[in-house]
Design goal:
Low-confidence stretches: none
Structural class: mainly alpha
Strand content: under 5%
Number of helices: 1
Shape: rod-shaped
Radius of gyration: 45 Å
Oligomer: single chain
Largest sheet: none
Helix content: over 70%
């Protein structure tokens, strides 16, 4: 009977050891699952931030493009206005020369 008790005792120790290590493994699995869940959440947050930054960059590029176009349009208007006024001034000078008037009246000083 002593051998039987020792054998049962050894089996009990082995089963207890198996139970202990299976509980440890399950705890580790639970911790890993929690860590994986947290990392998935962080990765999702980083991806959302990356998408937001990409949208902001695209918006800024669009605004910059529009501003350059507006600036170009104003330069075009200013150039057209300058050329028109210069042509009007030249036409006025020519009409004064033809009529024999003085150019001093329009501010040329010649």
């Amino acid at each position: 009977m002593g051998e039987k008790n020792q054998s049962v005792s050894r089996i009990s120790v082995v089963l207890d050891s198996i139970l202990f290590w299976s509980q440890k493994i399950n705890q580790q699995k639970d911790q890993n699952a929690l860590i994986r869940h947290e990392m998935d959440f962080e990765i999702k947050a980083y991806k959302e931030r990356e998408e937001e930054l990409a949208r902001n960059i695209n918006r800024q590029l669009f605004i910059r493009s529009v501003l350059w176009k507006i600036l170009g349009f104003f330069v075009l208007i200013a150039t057209f206005s300058f050329i028109t006024n210069k042509n009007k001034l030249n036409n006025r000078r020519e009409s004064l020369k033809i009529s024999g008037g003085s150019c001093e009246r329009i501010g040329t000083g010649s």
